[in-house]
Every structure is written in C-alpha cells, then in structure tokens.
Amino acid sequence: MNSFSELSSLSRLLSALTALAFALVGLVLFVLPAWSAANFSWKISPMVAMTMGGWYLGSAVMAGLIGYHRRWNLIYPAALYLALFSLSEAAVLVVHRSKLVLGAGLAWPYIGMLGVGIAASLSLLADRLRSKPQSEEPPERVPIWVRFVISGFVVFVIFLAVVAVSGHWVGLNGGVFPEPLSLFTLRSFGAFYFSLAAPVITLMRTRRLQAATVYVWGGMALIVFITAAALFYLPVFNFSERPFQSIYLGVYLAAFLIAAYYLSSQRQTKAL
What we know:
mainly alpha, 10 helices, globular
C-alpha cells in the first residue's frame, strides 16, 4: 500500500481529539437539553439543544471513522464533512458574534470544540496537499437506485441549506422545524445541512462505494441521534395545523430506512 494514502499521525490524533470534543459537548446538549438551552452560547430552546447535541454526537462518530479507517480513498467524504461542518459553524458564530453570550456555561466549550475541529480539518487538508493520495481500487459500478437516491438527497438537502442560510420565513416561523427559530439558529441548521450534502456530490463524481459506505455509517449515527431528539419532543409538533412539519420528521425516517437498506445490501454483497 502506498504510505501516502494514509493520514499522518497528527491528523489521526486531531481526529480522535475532535471525536472526543464533539462527543462531550454533544452528550451534554443531548442528555441535558433544558440545562444546555439555559447555558448555551446564544438563545435556543431545549429541543434545539437536543437536536444540536445529535449533530455533534453524530459528528463525533464521523471523526472517529476518519481516524479508524485512515486511508484517504475511504475517508475523504467524511473528512470533507468534518472540515465544512467545523468551519461553517464557526463562520455562523463570527457572523452573529454580537449575539454570543460568552459568559454562558457552554460558550467556551462550544467554541473550543469547533476550534479542535478546525485544527483537525487543517491538518487533514495539509495531508491531502502533501500526499496527493491515489486510490488503490478502481471506480465501482454504482447501482442506479443508489445514484437516484444520492441525487435526490443532494437536491433536497441543498434546498434546505439555502432556505436556512437565507433566513426564509418558512424556517423562522415553525413551518418545517416545529418551533420558531432565530436567524442565528436557522443559519446553524443551514451550515449543518450544507456540510452534510456537499461530500455526497464528490461521491457522485468519483463513484467509490467503499467511501460511500463509510460516510453512510457516519450519516446513520447523525440520523439516529437527530430522530431520537425529534421523537422525544414529538408533542411539540402540530401536524394538523402545520402539515409541512411532517417533512422534518419524515425525511429523517426515510433517510434511516434507505441508509439501513444500503448498508444491508453492501454487507450481503461482500458475503457473496
């Protein structure tokens, strides 16, 4: 194996530290949503706190997969997600810095967590520029149904990201997410959605099923935690008066079923 196809020791260490930082902050947000909402960097609700906790717990799994698999041809979508997520969430903080409450209990842990993620991302970028890794495996034939699902996923999630970042009234007034969101929070949602969708575009271009499988495992963790938060706060939803709220929950449930089917089909293929 070409040694340049693997991450450096520094990148593996920083990926592990990022996984730990994301897991710790994410766990507090997820398990203690009411306390977290009252002690967060800006004003959010307990449901948003638990949902964001799901983002960071899932992202901790993604960072852990990067350090575990090491090889660039397997982890490049996950590495791109980690970089985009850390950088875009930090950018949202900078844009809305006047709204930050730096004296809050979770303010500096949250900022520090993003700082570790950015450091890991820069190290990964340095590895990529230095090594110019080459994949050992030829491109695989991507099933038509996988390409169809990927295309639909990218279009829909990019649409959500654009709506969120633009501050459209649908996102602000509880039209899809079951609670009204501030522009600060809405743009954090947009940064997350953009970070999730952009790596999938690279999978469409390179057709690496092994890389897709690693990324789907990380995505599955995100789906499980975020869906659990939505189900925990299910009484907050008002499907009769705001039917578009069903999109929020329905998308995650559909994504879970599709991801589970994909992972199952990949396992069966390897067993043949």
